[in-house]
């Protein structure tokens, strides 16, 4: 069963905020939300993660709804270099098998000039 | 630091041949893993290791062997290559056993074609 649902593709204008949604309606209390991205054919790159509170780092912001059933990754000022596939992953880091990080299909974000 | 280094970058094999994909990291990471990515698809975990001498299977382990004799290296062996193993292979590592705050660092990938 898929743990997360993401749109297949999205477009955003350069310089605007890119908001990538992720639905994780069956998330459990101990599961974290992680975001990675994969630019072209490179290896994926970690972006951000969170449990309940909103998080921000130098790359992005992560907004998690109060019921934790969905979240949004925000790239505040998208550039052409942000064109990539973005993966939303939920994982309980404390259970057996937590070392198996499972990537879904992700969202292909295209930043347009 | 070089990070996670994968070799070779490209490889063409004939069906039935064997080979080893190399992965090395110089960050003293405990956790290492191998993923494969088929065209238009997400990554699928093949094998992983939480430390020297410890390995375990991921989602798609069949046809692949691994060993972890040192902290730095985690080679992936194909004993008898099949066309279904044509894919891009990524190695990744993490400082600890992929606990809460740990992030995966990925190599640049090996593109493998089996004819």
Question: What does this molecule look like?
Answer:
The complex is a heterodimer of chains A (113) and B (115). Chain A has 113 residues and is an all-beta fold. Chain A is built from no helices and nine strands. In chain A, the strands form two sheets. Chain A has a five-stranded mixed sheet, with no helix packed on it. In chain A, strands 2-7-6-5 form a four-stranded antiparallel sheet, with no helix packed on it. Chain A is globular, with a radius of gyration of 14 Å. By secondary structure, chain B is mainly beta. Chain B is built from no helices and eleven strands. In chain B, strands 2, 4, 5, 6, 9, 10 and 11 form a seven-stranded mixed sheet that branches. A four-stranded antiparallel sheet of chain B has the order 1-3-8-7, with no helix packed on it. In chain B, a hairpin with a 2-residue loop joins strand 5 and strand 6 (54-57). Chain B starts with a strand and ends with a strand. The model of chain B has no long low-confidence stretch (mean pLDDT 92). At the A-B interface, strand 4 of A face strand 4, strand 5, strand 9 and strand 10 of B.
Short description:
With 113 residues, chain A is mostly beta strands. Chain A has no helices and 9 strands.
Stretches of chain B where pLDDT falls below 50 for ≥5 residues? Answer: none
Shape of chain B: globular
Rg of chain A, please?
A: 14 Å
What order do the helices and strands of chain A follow?
EEEEEEEEE
Hey, roughly how much beta strand do the residues of chain B contain? Answer: over 45%
**Distance between the ends of chain B:** 36 Å
Structural class of chain B: mainly beta
Oligomerization status of the protein chains: heterodimer
Radius of gyration of chain B, CA atoms, in whole angstroms: 13 Å
Q: Would you identify the regions of chain A where 5 or more consecutive residues have pLDDT less than 50?
A: none
The secondary structure category of chain A is mainly beta
Quick one: overall form of chain A?
globular
Q: How many separate helices of chain B?
A: 0
Helicity of chain B, as a percent range: under 10%
> Main β-sheet of chain A, in a few words?
5 strands, mixed
User: What is the average per-residue confidence, as pLDDT of chain A, rounded to a whole number?
Assistant: 91
Strand order of the largest sheet of chain A: 1-9-8-3-4
Helix count of chain A? 0
- Can you count the beta strands of chain B? 11
- Beta content of chain A comes to 35-45%
Mean pLDDT across every amino acid position of chain B: 92
